[in-house]
């Protein structure tokens, strides 16, 4: 089994299954923090799927998209933590 087969037949289904499990946590999350963390994790698994697809198809352009998604996920997490800090000060 080559590296490409391993990525395509083992890692990609594991990431797809984890995406489904994380999405269930996103829908059922009891608090806003759980939902934000699961959304961040969904973006992270999406970055992993894009990276594996980029390696499998030999298209390095998709890595730029993954990097932009990582920056957006980071900024979203920072914005949420800023929101939570301001919310705690007001209460």
TrEMBL record:
<comment type="similarity">
    <text>Belongs to the CPA3 antiporters (TC 2.A.63) subunit F family.</text>
</comment>
<dbReference type="InterPro" id="IPR007208">
    <property type="entry name" value="MrpF/PhaF-like"/>
</dbReference>
<dbReference type="Pfam" id="PF04066">
    <property type="entry name" value="MrpF_PhaF"/>
</dbReference>
<keyword id="KW-1133">Transmembrane helix</keyword>
<keyword id="KW-1003">Cell membrane</keyword>
<keyword id="KW-0406">Ion transport</keyword>
<keyword id="KW-0050">Antiport</keyword>
<keyword id="KW-0813">Transport</keyword>
<protein>
    <submittedName>
        <fullName>Cation:proton antiporter</fullName>
    </submittedName>
</protein>
<feature type="transmembrane region" description="Helical">
    <location>
        <begin position="36"/>
        <end position="56"/>
    </location>
</feature>
<feature type="transmembrane region" description="Helical">
    <location>
        <begin position="6"/>
        <end position="24"/>
    </location>
</feature>
<feature type="transmembrane region" description="Helical">
    <location>
        <begin position="62"/>
        <end position="83"/>
    </location>
</feature>
<keyword id="KW-0472">Membrane</keyword>
<keyword id="KW-0812">Transmembrane</keyword>
